Amino acid sequence: MVSKTQPISELAVGVGRPGSAKTVIKKISASQQIHDILRDRIVSLELAPGQYLSRAEISEAYGVSQTPVREAMQRLEEEGLLLIWPQSKTEVSPIDVAHAQETQFLRLSLELEVVRRLSRMTDRCFAADLEATVARQGRATDSEDFGAFRALDQAFHRDLCRLVGVEALWGLITARSGHIDRLRNLNLPDPGKLLSIMSCHRRLVEAIKAGDVQTAQDVVREHLSGTLAQVEYIRRRHPNFFQDNAAAS
């Protein structure tokens, strides 16, 4: 996490760091690349809620004009991750618990059907790949590599959707998951959290392999409810990260 007053130019890869060159974004899809970079930093909490972002500084840091930066910021505003006051300022948005709950509802609905279909497949040879991802997560857990763990977690759930041909739906949910993902990332370092996620992933794969639809769906419900069940605890520890709205029961 960073100071809210730290300029974005110092956060760019290679910018303001001894012995490193300025990062230059490729001209092709510059807006998409900047969007992805900024989104990752917001979701990972490297850019905390309330962090000021300067379009001019981002443009300078990545060696592009302000047009793709403006487009990237507009997309992030649409996703609820930035607050933009025209001709004034742009800040990283606070975490909106109500938005997180809506997204969680969508994701739960999707994954319950996904694991039902996977459990009913006659050929479940794909389980070996899921187990390999879980094994890599285990190594990330042992080394407390939270970045690698997060990436593998996303890959695990994306692969579940891909295996039943609905990867595009996973993409749609991911695009609106900024608030729930920030909640998870605040929760991730808590004692036992990584092991709890690992346990759910292992049990889910075993249930799918066994063709046990009910157990697979029960594990999904348990797995996806964990962070929201801790939201008041997370809010008490990080009150400045949250929008001033009531947490749901």
Automatic annotation (TrEMBL):
Keyword list, A-Z: DNA-binding, Transcription, Transcription regulation
InterPro entries found in the cross-reference section: GntR_C, TF_FadR/GntR_C, Tscrpt_reg_HTH_GntR, WH-like_DNA-bd_sf, WH_DNA-bd_sf
Keyword flag Heme: no
UniProt GO molecular function: DNA binding; DNA-binding transcription factor activity
Ranges where the HTH gntR-type domain occurs: 28-95
SUPFAM superfamilies, alphabetized: GntR ligand-binding domain-like, Winged helix' DNA-binding domain
Record PANTHER family: GNTR FAMILY REGULATORY PROTEIN, TRANSCRIPTIONAL REGULATOR, GNTR FAMILY
Protein name, UniProt field: HTH gntR-type domain-containing protein
Organism: Puniceibacterium antarcticum
Lineage, top ranks: Bacteria, Pseudomonadati, Pseudomonadota, Alphaproteobacteria, Rhodobacterales
